[in-house]
Amino acid sequence: MLHTTNNVIKHKAGLLNLAEQLKNVSQACKIMGVSRDYIYRHYKEVG
Description:
This is Regulator. By secondary structure, the chain is mainly α. It has helices at about 5-20, 25-30, 35-45. The chain has one domain. Helix 1 packs across helix 2 (about 25-30).
């Protein structure tokens, strides 16, 4: 699980954590209001 104090990074970390928790990227994207492309770009950044 990712932790941070920066709001932008906190949003990205929350999105990645939600997708991990749900085990469903599409559902996490719908909940957070972002595209699948957005989440996959951030997966690349952290890992």
